[in-house]
Amino acid sequence: MPKMKTRKSANKRFKKTASGKFKYKSQGTRHILTKKSPKRKRNLRHRVVVSKTETPRLKRMLPYAGS
Q1: 24, 48 Cβ separation under 8 angstroms
Q2: Is-contact 65 20, C-beta < 8 A?
Q3: In whole angstroms, what is the distance from residue 13 CA to residue 61 CA?
């Protein structure tokens, strides 16, 4: 059986946590920041956890991601 291939685009965007969830950086933080409120920009700084429905799809895309 050959090795499964990792989706490189997903590998760059998602990291697996110790509990098996996936986290990613929020979108909307690169440019056009002047019209966004300070509160909105502050909340966009943090990593976000992927929803439970998307987790199985990411597990298929990242077969060797951590635990």
Answers
A1: yes
A2: no
A3: 12
